[in-house]
Design goal:
319 residues, alpha/beta, Udp-n-acetylmuramoylalanyl-d-glutamate--2,6- Diaminopimelate Ligase, Chain: A, domain 1, UDP N-Acetylglucosamine Acyltransferase, domain 1, 2 domains, ten-stranded mixed β-sheet, nine-stranded parallel β-sheet
Length: 319
Amino acid sequence: MFNLEHISKFIDAKLIGNPRKKIIGLSDYREPHPDKLIFISKKKDLNSEILKNSGVILCSEDLYDDSCEVNFLISDEPKLSFAKITQLFKKSSLRLYSSSYKNLSLGTDVQIGNNCLFGHGVIIEDNVTIGNNSIISHHVVIHSGSIIGNNVKIDAGCIIGSEGFGNIQDKKSFNWIHIHHLGNVEIKNDVSIGSNCTIDRGTIANTIIHDGVIIDNQVHIAHNVSIGERTAIAAKVGIAGSCIIGKRNMIGGMVGIIDHIKTADDVIISATSTVNRNIYESGVYTGIMPISQHSSWKRIAFWITKLDKILRKLNIKKI
């Protein structure tokens, strides 16, 4: 529970209303509550029921209604402010975590920094280093030699430093000969990794996840990959071996990136795209066929949907 004065200072927003009003949590705009905060981003959602029953409304200046008596928090970046407010009201599950190493399966020569928390069933193998203020959730496996920085959060079920998928076929016997991976995984500072992700160790050099990267659930990052700073990766993305992903990339859900691909900084890849060539310039890219700039893909997609009509006009039989 926080009063509005505290919340307004925390998000650096202008408060119009009662600074001593207590807010006990957040509410969906479709279910207003007299003691909860509602975030409104569209004028059409600001109806009379919300204006009458909300504890406080967070919105931009252009949505503020000065004829109403309800409390308002006015922000230049309301969505960012909302994200910060969720930090205040997050339901803590830290009671399920421990800073004690008694419940961990620990290898030898493991170094763990200050203020780290661990869930149940965590396995940390030999020669692992973990920085300060990191949270390792339930049933995470961190394989030998992995290096994890400060303020890293790894959600349940992740496997860090698993063996990479590198194999050579013996042409005489047709058997697959595995290439043993001798590198490690290095996760820099302020990285967040969702549930059930796997990050493979490098073949010789390390697989590296740079500062500030955020990764959704069920993502696979293969051996020798480098993920640039502040990149965001949505669920079910697969990044094949030896890719170099630029800084501040945004990779949509279910994107597949083939091996040895490089992307520039500030690239956005639309969901379900297949990336099978290098991307040298920043921009938005889309494609289930060979990836192209988003603006080009939209033109191609438009004409694809018109092909039947064009064929009929030209009196050409369908192939």
